[in-house]
Amino acid sequence: MIPVAEALARIVGSFAPLPSETVSIAEAFGRVLAADVTARVTQPPHAVSAMDGYAVRAADVVKVPATLDVIGAVPAGGLFEGTLAPGQAVRIFTGAPLPPGSDAIVIQEDTEAADGPDGKKVTVKESCRPGNYVRPAGLDFAAGDPGPRAGRLLTARDVGLIAAMNHPWVAVRRRPRVAILATGDEVVMPGEPLGPSQIVSSNGLALAAFVRACGGEPVQLGIAADREDSLVALAAGAKGADLLLTAGGASVGEHDLVQKVLGRQGMQLDFWKIAMRPGKPLMFGQLGGTPVIGLPGNPVSAVVCSLLFARPALNALLGLDVPAHPVEQMVLGADLPQNDRRQDYLRATVAKNGDGRRTATPYGRQDSSMLALLAAADGLIVRAPHAPAAAKGDQVEVLALQQLLPGV
Q1: Three-state SS at 317
Q2: Is the entire prediction scored with pTM above 0.90?
Q3: Closest CA to 211 of 315, 325, 295
Q4: Is 73 part of a structural domain of the chain?
Q5: In what order do the strands lie in the sheet with 88-92?
C-alpha cells in the first residue's frame, strides 16, 4: 500500500490542462478560464452622475439657498451640448455624463424646482463640494486593467465583469470527457427487476453527477457483467475519453476482473492499493493513452476516492488553480481510538458549539457500504496513519464537503 499523498501526486502528475475553446460570454458561467482577461474599455467612460439631481458648479452653491437657471436636461445615455456658466444648472439623471463646466451633483432631495419669469429655476438648499455624487471616469476599471485570470472557475460575478469589460467571447478549457464503467453481476439500474441476490446500482449515477459537478462531461458505458467479454466490450467505449472511471472489480478476487482484463488489453498499471480507509483497493493506470482510475465498488469508498483523487485529476485537466484537499481545523465531538496504518476519512456531522467554534462529530459506524451516512454527512474527519487516540474537544482536520465540492 502506498500513502495517500504519494498516490495523489502520481495521479495528478499524469494530467495536463486540456486545449481551450471559445464560448459566448453568455455560456461561460461555471467554465474554467483559459486565458487572462483585460478590460477593452474604460468604465465609466466619462465622469457621470451617481444620483438623480442637478449638475452644478460647486462654487455657485457655497452659500445656500442658491437659485440657479436650469438650461437643460441630460438622461443616462444622453449628452449635454454646451457648457455651464456661472449661475446655471442642468437637470441630470443617474449614469448621465457630467455637462462641461459642472463639477458636482446636488441630489434632487436637496433642491426645489420652480418656474421663474425668465424660465426654469432650481433652488439649492444644501451646499456641496466639487466631486459630490460624481463617479469619475475609470472609477470601476480602465482599458487595459486586468480582469479574471486563467485558471479561475467563472462565477456569475466574473461573467458580469468580463461582459462589462466588453468581451462577447471568452477562452475556456474544454470540458473533460469522462467515461464511467460500473461492474458486477450483483447490481442493476434503479427501477429494473431485482434478483434475489442483487442490489440497486448507485455508483454510475453518483459518479456521473460528480463529474458534472467537477466541470466534466460524463459518458455512461453501462454495467459490465463479471465476464471478460462484457468488460472488454464496454471498456472499448472509453476510447478517446480524457479519463476512465471504473467502479468495482479493482481488487484481485476471483470475480474482480477489471485489473486482470484491462491488463490483458494493454493497461499499464501505475499502482494498486492505498493506505486509506475507506478506499484501499484503488487502482491507477493507462489504457491506450486513456488514464484509468479504478474505484472500489463500495459506494462510500467510490465517492470518497473520487473526491480525493478524481477531483484533483479533473482540476488538472481543467487547469483549475485550487487546493487539492483544503482541510479546516475543528473541534472533535467524540472520543476516537488510536488509528492503525491506514489514513482514515470519517464521515461526520458539523455544528457550532456554545462558543461559536465548529464541532465535527463522527458517526458511530463507518461501514463503507452505508451511503445514507455519507449523504447526511457535513464533512470527513482526516486521521493520519498511527494517529494517537483523540479525546472529545481535541483539534481535528476536516474536509468540509460543501466547500470541497458544492453539490457532491
Answers
A1: helix
A2: no
A3: 315
A4: yes
A5: 104-107, 53-56, 88-92, 66-74, 119-124, 111-116
Same domain membership, residue 303 and residue 203: yes
DSSP string for 1-55: -B-HHHHHHHHHTT--PPPEEEEEGGG-TTPBB-S--B-SS-BSSS-EESSSEEE
Is residue 35 a contact partner of residue 171, using CB atoms and an 8 Å limit?
Answer: yes
155 and 94 within one domain: no
> Considering the domain boundaries, does residue 323 fall inside one?
no
* 331: β partners: 359, 395
Q: Does residue 34 sit in the same domain as residue 166?
A: yes
Q: Whole-angstrom Cα distance, residue 129 to residue 99?
A: 16
Domain limits at 69? 48-135
- Please tell me whether residues 215 and 314 are part of one structural domain: yes
Task: Mark which of 109, 135, 161 sits at the end of a domain.
Answer: 135
The residues, any chain, with a CB within 8 Å of residue 278's CB and separated by 6 or more, are 296, 298, 300, 301, 304, 305, 345, 366, 368
Per-residue pLDDT 10s for the chain (408 aa) are: 899 999 999 999 999 999 999 999 999 999 999 999 999 999 999 999 999 999 999 999 999 999 999 999 999 989 999 999 999 999 999 999 999 999 999 999 999 988 766 669 999 999 999 999 999 999 999 999 999 999 999 999 999 999 999 999 999 999 999 999 998 878 878 888 888 888 778 899 999 999 999 999 999 999 998 889 999 999 999 999 999 999 987 655 555 688 889 999 999 999 999 999 999 899 999 999 999 999 998 999 999 999 999 999 999 999 998 887 889 999 999 999 999 999 999 999 999 987 888 999 999 999 988 999 999 999 999 999 999 999 999 999 999 997 766 665
Give the H/E segment covering residue 315. helix 311-318
Task: Kindly state the DSSP code that residue 390 receives in the 8-state scheme.
Answer: B
* b/e code 354-381 from CB counts within 10 Å (16+ = b): eeeebbbbbbeebebebbebbeebbbbb
Joined together, the cell numbers standing for residue 274 give: 492505498
